[in-house]
Write a structure and sequence with these properties.
It is a single chain. By secondary structure, the chain is α/β, with parallel strands linked by helices. The protein has a single domain, classed as Glycoside hydrolase/deacetylase (TIM Barrel, Alpha-Beta Barrel). Helix content is 40%, strand content 14%. The protein contains ten helices and nine strands. Strands 1, 2, 3, 6 and 7 form a five-stranded parallel β-sheet that branches. Strands 4-5 form a two-stranded parallel sheet. Strands 8-9 form a two-stranded antiparallel sheet. β1, α2 and β2 form a beta-alpha-beta unit. α7 runs parallel beside α8.
Length: 284
């Protein structure tokens, strides 16, 4: 009986730490503003000294800038590729240190995954990292505090043409073009997560870029996509910081129109990235 209760309690705690944390993912970035016909291409799981280099060549031919969410451990083994990504003026972001699912990481391991990758990738690229994408799209409750400490923001995606299951290159192109929308963040893979993913991406990337441009989309980095919206967010956070009871969920007294104290209201968390609360389909 006691062991059974302990097992139930442990399972409930794990569920709250992992599944429960996905209730907070509206605060992550799922897409950018829909005010301009811009789309960000993002690449996960690299750097790969072979496939990432081929992706860089394709992007250079079409003069496209993109965002690369790199795995720290792999970046340590391929520093030249990291330098080439940065030298080509692409954006470097973090995909964690070892690509371990955060569902399998306690608070200390989560801090190590985010902090270690942040330090190595910042040093390797010569730029301070701004964005983090959790491996497989899986978050935990400790991730948000670690990201605040390292001044990174969680970025997920609104279009993913290939996840855990292989998808032919032609189908990936059709899916992206069909689902394209202003502010979209497209999640692609330039290293082996799903078997054969880089080879299919190399075949899909050029027609994908050409098709998006033919329909009037500008291809940009995540930073460029969020430009403006992040300035508004920062201004809102600064305004909140100067107001009494600025913490999320705290009760504050809202003044009436004549400046006198009014009734108490609960300050609710600001929704971010224009997304909805949902757990993303797993991404390698």
């Amino acid at each position: 009986m006691i062991l059974g209760r302990l097992a139930v309690g442990t399972a409930a705690a794990w569920a709250a730490y992992t599944w429960g944390a996905h209730l907070v993912t509206p605060g992550c970035v799922w897409r950018g503003p829909a005010t301009r016909r811009r789309i960000a291409l993002t690449f996960d799981d690299g750097p790969d000294p072979i496939w990432s280099e081929r992706i860089l060549e394709l992007l250079a031919r079409r003069e496209v800038r993109a965002s690369f969410f790199l795995v720290g451990e792999r970046a340590a083994q391929a520093p030249e590729t990291v330098r080439r990504i940065a030298a080509a003026d692409h954006e470097i972001a973090s995909h964690g240190w070892s690509h371990r699912s955060l569902w399998l990481c306690g608070p200390r391991r989560t801090e190590a995954e985010i902090g270690r990758a942040h330090r190595l990738l910042s040093d390797a690229s010569g730029r301070s990292l701004r964005y983090f994408r959790p491996p497989w799209g899986m978050v935990n409750a400790a991730m948000f505090g670690a990201l605040r400490r390292h001044q990174e923001r969680c970025v997920l995606w609104s279009i993913q043409p290939e996840g855990l299951r292989p998808v032919p290159a032609a189908q990936q192109v059709r899916d992206v073009l069909h689902r394209a929308h202003p502010g979209a963040i497209v999640d692609l893979h330039d290293a082996e997560g799903t078997r054969g993913a880089p080879l299919r991406l190399v075949a899909a990337l050029s027609p994908m870029i050409d098709g998006l441009r033919e329909t009037g989309y500008e291809l940009v980095t995540v930073s460029d996509l969020l430009e403006g919206s992040e300035a508004v967010d920062r201004a809102g956070r600064m305004a909140d910081a100067t107001a009494p009871g600025d913490s999320v969920g705290r009760v504050v007294a809202m003044p009436t129109s004549d400046g006198a104290p009014g009734s108490a209201r609960t300050r609710r968390p600001r929704r971010g990235g224009g997304g909805t609360a949902r757990r993303p389909s797993p991404s390698p």
